[in-house]
Amino acid sequence: MVDWISVTVPFAYLGILVGSLATFSSLYRKRKSAKSSSLKPWFGPHLQRDIYLSLLHLEPEVGKDKPSVIPDGVLKAALLQRAMEDIKRILEVRNAKQALSNLLQRGSVGDELWQRFLRAEKEIEAELRDVVEEANALQSGWGQTIFQSANEMHHNAILREKLNAIQDRGKVDKEWWMQEKAFIKSRFMKELEEGKKENMKLALASSGDRAGSDEDTVLVEGGGPAASGAASGPRSEATKKRKGKK
Q1: Which of 42, 90, 136, 198 could staple 143 via S-S, CB 3.0–4.6 A?
Q2: Distance CA 178, CA 180 (A)
Q3: What is residue 103's predicted lDDT score, i.e. its pLDDT?
Q4: 135 Cβ contact partners less than 8 Å away, ≥ 6 residues apart
């Protein structure tokens, strides 16, 4: 006789084990999905996409049954702006991926930041597909070249920003140079005035010394005849005495 209890116990054990694993896996996926959805977005709001969707699904004005027709040129321009913003985000993700991966391997950043990054990558991929579909809907085959045009616009915008920064820097440097030039000029004029004053003082001092030397010369010349007369007096008296003896 077959012992059904010994036969059913292993199957029951396997069923309980598989059921518990399935329950745990389901709860883990739900928890992970809820945590991923609650993570802070990597990028901010996509304003260009919102503008394009607002133009595409424009509601009718009050008192009108049909909405205003938006020209295709306006929609294309809005879609190009949306694609240009996507180009910026793609470049940011590409530049950050390698560095973030290295930091994750070293343990410098947490898994939450990496999950945010992966979610941003998926969002960008979905955004690119949406833009290509919208471009093909507006113009057949435009989806193949829209991102090339957007990339050129992005580079032109970067060059324009650099030129504006250089021009602004040039204005600042010009103002600084004008102030420095005025300061140098005032300092030079001040030194020039001080030099003139020093030259005048030296001229006055040299003229005073010259006048003193002239006075000394006059005094020496005036005392010469008096001294010669005083010296010749005794000689004349001695000569007179000699004549009297004879």
Answers
A1: 136
A2: 5
A3: 86
A4: 79, 83, 142, 143, 146
Q: Over the range 7-36, which residues count as b (16 or more CB within 10 Å of their CB) and which as e? A: eeeeeeeeeeeeeeeeeeeeeeeeeeeeee
User: Which single residue is written with the structure tokens 């991929």?
Assistant: 125
For residues 45 and 1, which has the higher predicted lDDT (pLDDT)? 45
Per-residue pLDDT tens digits for 155-187: 999 999 999 999 888 888 888 888 888 888 888
Rounded to two decimals, what is the model's pTM? 0.58
Task: Give pLDDT tens digits for 179-193.
Answer: 888 888 888 888 888
Q: What is the CA radius of gyration of the chain?
A: 52
* Residue 89: other Cβ atoms inside 10 A: 18
pLDDT at 19 exceeding the cut of 50: yes
CA 128, 133, 134 angle in degrees (round to 5)?
95
Distance CA 21, CA 15 (A): 10
CA dist 89 and 112 (Å) reads 20
Whole-number Å distance between alpha carbons of 5 and 65:
75
51's CB contacts (< 8 A; 6+ apart) are 78, 81, 82
Is a pLDDT exceeding 50 seen at residue 132?
yes
DSSP string, 35-82: HHHTSPPSS---HHHHHHHHHHTPPPPTT-SSPPPPPHHHHHHHHHHH
- CA distance to 6, 93, 95, 112, per residue, from 102 (Å): 54, 14, 12, 15
